[in-house]
């Protein structure tokens, strides 16, 4: 306060700012929590097979091939979902893949890739997925296939011998296991 008992400019400014801050902080925290919850909800929803099937079911063969594979299981208990194989588990890598996947949604929406021309585009898309698997040494395969789920002693002799030599040959899972869940694409 100055000599006349009036508030200074800074005191008036602070008293004016206190009201919005008293309301703004709780509103900001609420919006932050709402945003984080919504974000996490979208991560959960977009990692479920129903989300993937919403577009890929229109492509016919992709979902049917997966359902016929050992990765689908019996239809009730699913040992591996689409995202288990196609979405990295570390957060930053997951966000990168999900951001890049928006181009697939775009191409579906604008009709670049349709049910009629899907098989024509499929080799290039498969090649892209295989390259990603090779770059990260099939990290998503190894996420599940380790420990009890990858006991070499329980494997047939041929598989065991091949798996023991995989690193020495500079190979990764996808080099031998293309076509395990989806049909093997013949490169032209």
From TrEMBL:
One of its GO terms (molecular function) is metal ion binding. One of its GO terms (cellular component) is plasma membrane. Binds 4 heme groups per subunit. GO terms for biological process: anaerobic respiration; denitrification pathway. Heme 3 binds at residues 141, 144-145. Residues 26-184 form the NapC/NirT cytochrome c N-terminal domain. A menaquinol binds at residues 82, 104. It is found in: Cell membrane. Belongs to the NapC/NirT/NrfH family. The keyword Cell membrane applies. This is Cytochrome c-type protein. Heme 4 binds at residues 173, 176-177. It is a single-pass membrane protein. Heme 2 binds at residues 85-86, 182. It comes from the Bacteria. The keyword Ligase does not apply. Binds 4 heme groups per subunit. The chain crosses the membrane at residues 21-45. Keywords: Cell membrane, Electron transport, Heme, Iron, Membrane, Metal-binding, Transmembrane, Transmembrane helix, Transport. Heme 1 binds at residues 52, 55, 104. It comes from Shewanella woodyi (strain ATCC 51908 / MS32). Its cofactor is heme. Pfam families: Cytochrom_NNT.
